[in-house]
Amino acid sequence: MDTQTILQWQQSTVAELIKEAGFSVSRIATETGIPHTTLLRKLKGVSEFKPSELFRIAKVTHLDPALFIPPQFSSLERAA
User: pLDDT tens across 10-58, in order?
Assistant: First the structure.
């Protein structure tokens, strides 16, 4: 999996998980300490998420951190 594919996967999946958990981007930014503009750039696929950022988002949204790992790198598959 190339870097661009990972960025695209992160962009769509993280945004979808945040939305499904009922959180706004502003709330995630506030509760994780990730600057709002930084979070927006990452959600647009301009830059990559750090593992620590994904963990903080998972913690705030009460989701399994494994959901934030591309499926090629994880044995846990996201339920459709």
Answer: 889 999 999 999 999 999 999 999 999 999 999 988 888 999 999 999 9
Report the 10 Å Cβ neighbour count for 30. Answer: 13
| C-alpha span between 30 and 5 (Å, rounded) | 28
User: Residue by residue, what is the 3-state secondary structure of 36-67?
Assistant: HHHHHHHHCCCCCCCHHHHHHHHHHHCCCHHH
Residue pair 68/57 in contact (Cβ under 8 Å)? The answer is: yes
Q: Are 69 and 28 in contact (CB under 8 A)?
A: no
In the chain, where do the E strands start and end? none
